[in-house]
Amino acid sequence: MPLGLSRIGVAFLLSLAVAAVLVPVLNLTVASDSTWHVSTTNVVLFGKYLCYALLALSIDLVWGYCGILSLGHGAFFALGGYAMGMHLMREIGSRGVYGNPVLPDFMVFLNWKELPWYWYGFDQFWFAALMVVLAPGALAFVFGMFAFRSRVTGVYLSIITQAMTFALLLAFFRNDMGFGGNNGLTDFKGVLGFDLQNNATRCGLFALSAIALAGGFLACRAIVSSKLGKVLVAVRDAESRTRFIGYRVEHYKLFVFTVSAMMAGVAGALYVPQVGIINPGEFAPANSIEAVIWVAVGGRGTLVGAALGALVVNVGKSWFTGALPELWLFALGGLFIFVTLFLPKGLLGLVRSRRVASAAPVEAPGEPVTVIDRQAAE
Amino acid sequence: MPFGITLRRIVLAVALAVVGASGVGAHADTLRARIDALATADFAAKEAIINELAAAGDAEAVPALTALGNGDLQVRKTDGKVIIAVRDGNSYKAIDPVSAADLGPVDRAALDKIRVNNNLRRVISAVVGSLTLRSKDPSVRRAAADAVFKSRDASALDVLDEAIAAETDNGIRRRMVLARAAAILQTNRPEPDRLAAIAVVAEHGNQDAKDLLSSVAASADGEVKRKATASIALIEQSLAMWSVGQNIWYGLSLGSVLLLAAIGLAITFGVMGVINMAHGEMVMIGAYVTFMVQEVIRTSAPALFDVSLLIALPLAFLTAGAVGVVIERGIIRWLYGRPLETLLATWGLSLVLQQAVRSIFGPTNREVGAPSWMSGAFELGGLTLTYGRVWIIVFAIAVFILLLVVLKRTAFGLQMRAVTQNRRMASSMGIRTTWVDALTFGLGSGVAGIAGVALSQIDNVSPNLGQSYIIDSFMVVVFGGVGNLWGTLVGALTLGVVNKFLEPYAGAVLGKILVLVFIILFIQKRPRGMFALKGRAVES
Amino acid sequence: MTELSKSLLYLDGVTVSFDGFRALNNLSLVVGHGEMRAIIGPNGAGKTTMMDVITGKTRPDKGDVLFNGERDLTKLDEAEIAELGIGRKFQRPTVFESHSVLDNIVLALEGPRGVFSSLFARLTGRECDRIDEVLATIRLSDRRDELAGSLSHGQKQWLEIGMLLAQDPALLLVDEPAAGMTDAETAETAALLRRIAETHSVVVVEHDMTFVRDLGVRVTVLHEGSVLAEGSLDQVSADERVIEVYLGR
User: Fold this and answer.
1) Which among A246, A358, A375 is the nearest to C90, CB-wise?
2) What is the DSSP letter of B107?
3) Which domains does chain B have, with CATH numbers?
């Protein structure tokens, strides 16, 4: 099959296609008292989950296939979200509370007279759309260039990615950063002329999220099934060995880290118009780690599993926070422990383990990388 | 004479406070009789009464005299009682001139002012000055001297000279001399006197002295102006030095907090290589143990409150240590060699522990009190040091040394290092490696617990307590160099001081961001930290 | 300079120390074009550290390491040195366990190593032939689609040698290829290395004296980070200092 799509992969793409068509139809055309009606609340809710799934996919690309456990992918997601949020703020125009055609409400409130230079261009959708991928991509590129060139790996990398998102969290909380401080960007009216409160717009965003997820999946699939993907797995399993046969490991890591950050940015950009707000809370390290557990639950190194994991955990979260809010953190915490101890290959790994063994890199005793190092040091 | 009025107000406040604290003695009756006599006396009789009061040397007369000078001493028409009338919003309230007791609101129309003339005011001013500056109570004398320094009241000079001659306490005499110098600078005394006064003030060298000299430099000319300006420059220099000192102190104080938070991690992460994201929650457990100890003491043995922290220390160590052992046995031992999984599992654990504490103790902050020996502050040169911070620094260093001794000088420490360096070899030499693992992790967690006892004194005890420390702690350990306790010490103190020095320029938040960015860049440069172990052992 | 210009690998006065311990002490070694050299020495003699220095994993404190008489290897990193034409086989077999045997060879196959060229890489017919040839040499043709992780220890050793062949370097560094092998496998490995040495320069580090005898090449004895003796196996085994090092303690 093209791109080495497995049956699960094909089924995943098909169900996304069906959902992209069926959910809007059931929301817009079926009467609201019918059992077949999909409520607008659910359209928005699942649209949000699809964005989370795309974020999970991007994490799986770097973690599952290249062994880079990023605890800061929430930052790329949030940056994409802020880029989109800035466009939506500009599109409010004079419909804001203060009616200023250029300055967003919070700037008027802070008594700013001029638009900061980094807000220029965001009134154009194409520019914002470009920034959605370029801003997280640039951050990932610069960060990765430093980190990978100096061979920061493993938990050290995880910890500094966490510090990175924490630093951004603090920065975006500041009012004088010009991103709305504590409250973030909100009170959006519309996008490209479509009213964001309108059901049809929401259905459109849902369908767009499904398409983006499918596109992201195909892109990841293309990457991991190419020779580059094989090099990535080689890096994951035996980094110095890969170096000794002549691959510039840092270039490969940088490439996949940047691509992954861009995907996370797209996910954030689709997320913001659906939930109607983006604030610094999205940079919280806890968010990034929670996204990692979606991937672990679904099964890392499987792509489809990562997306499914995001859906499963978030549906569970919605149910828990509605029914037993006290218990949600117990459940989430327990999930972290349970999955790492008893389900190292995730849900999909459980299904697949009897068939193909090419999936997750569950190191049995120790990590291959350390094996080489130890031996080479002898 | 505006300064004179200011002086009287300040002296009134000081004296009221003193009187209020000391209560009313038997001689209060004669004092009250004399004050009541003021109501009917003529000016000459008033002067006689005032001189009697001065002769009695009774500081308790000061509030009444001051009020008299200000025109606040009044006769209540209803009962003929002499009171001090104090403006209270739009109305007046009566205050007992001897006991300073609040006698309730009073109508202005129902009051009769006790009249004074300029001559009487002068007499009162001198008497008040001598009563306070030559009071038997050293704290009153000190306050009076400081009050003269603030008011720069030249009219107090004569009394001040007498007081200086009679003063036996060196500290107070210094303040009096300073006050005298300040007052002299307000007069037109000859240049040599004023220059000497500038020298005295300049020697004092704090912000007040600088302000005083600035006003002198602005109004005077010639040699006086020149000398005042030069002295200001000197004072500014020394002030800058003290502010650097204060920054270092704040930095060390923050560093000691970081050290406390990170030192347990230096064992679990640094020595064992276990990424424990629930480390902050061990700190939190220690803080809650402190809270519970104090609760029990409050309800059943309030007398023990001052030693509550000492009681909490071993309990926090044991509780957090026991939780640590359970975690190691239950979760972490299955994940050795898989650091990323350990990271995720312990993060999950931190969520569970936070929620558990939230369910048991509620989500809000819990009140943990400070024992008396940890409250208050003292001055050291130009520095203000709070006892709480001093104790935390001392405590952090003590914990550090203790841990160093445990690691380097005990059998357990030896076994621990053996196991972490070569597990198989240690095992074949008869060391029970699994127990060493569990106890090492327990030790790291227990140390985090006692850090929680200290941190409960300066931070909110809430379920989120631990989370605020986890990133900082990892930064300290990684920055200092993994597996090196000294590195953790230097790392914590460095980061603390750097943070505090950035704050004035960048603000607290931006300073913290800059430090984070600095560490991120630093790790790129030296991935194994400042004090990295080198060589073959590290490679494996 | 004549020695330098005709040498493929030239080490002169190389010193490496870790926290005061000298792993290599003023080590000098010359390997000529097309030569096969065996390096022996007791544990801690510095054999693996020497390999680390040649392949760029460890930077020497001082000394020269030249390749082809001109390229200074101490200035290059692992990937650059590998692209220059130095291949390394590790002591413990390290293959990419979650890749198939075929993919292991594909990854090692000589060709562009850049990110984008591998993103769009397709195997050419010539490359397929080359892969078949290598697989046949290491006798893993019929297991080409199996995961490398499922191979036996000896097969992994051979797969790693196969990866070296696919990489086609000018110089092969082979660290204890016979470790953990049966006698028959050891003999076959020696034969394989002799065949490789017809077209490549090879440096073999080995403990197993039978194996070294099977190779029948010039031997360098390392001890405490420097060269103790050099010559044929019979010559060095007659050297008294060598005997003392091996037997004296």
Assistant:
1) A375
2) -
3) 2-187 (no CATH), 243-539 (1.10.3470)
The ipTM, to two decimals, is: 0.86
pLDDT in tens, B290-321: 999 999 998 888 888 888 888 999 999 999 99
- pLDDT value at A375 more than 70: no
Cα A51 to Cα A287: distance, rounded to the nearest angstrom: 14
Answer whether C124 touches A (CB < 8 Å): no
Which chains does A contact via 3+ CB–CB distances below 8 A?
Answer: B, C
Total domains present in chain C: 1
Picking from A286-295, A333-342, B343-352, B421-430, which range would have the lowest pLDDT averaged per residue?
B421-430
- Residue ranges of chain B with per-residue pLDDT less than 50: 1-7, 19-24, 534-540
Give me the residue spans of the domains in chain A: 2-284
Q: Residue window 255-314, chain A: list those with CB within 8 Å of chain B.
A: 285-286, 289, 292-293, 296
pLDDT tens digits, one per residue of C170-188: 898 988 887 777 888 888 8
Angle at B491 between CA B471 and CA A151, to 5 degrees: 70
Over residues A206-225, the mean pLDDT reads 94
Question: Which residues from chain B sit within 8 angstroms of residue C19, using beta carbons?
Answer: 533-535
Using the Cβ of C51 and the Cβ atoms of chain A, whether some distance falls under 8 Å is answered with yes
**Structure-token pair, residue B519:** 């560490």
What CATH number should be reported for the domain holding residue C27?
3.40.50.300
Q: Which two tokens stand for residue B109?
A: 């129309």
| Contacts of the segment B359-367: beta carbons below 8 A, 24+ positions apart | B359/A326, B361/B288, B361/B291, B361/B463, B363/B462, B363/B463, B364/B462, B365/B460, B365/B461, B365/B462, B366/B288, B366/B291, B366/B461, B366/B462, B367/B291, B367/B461
CB contact under 8 A, A246 and C83: yes
Domain residue limits at C238: 1-84+217-249
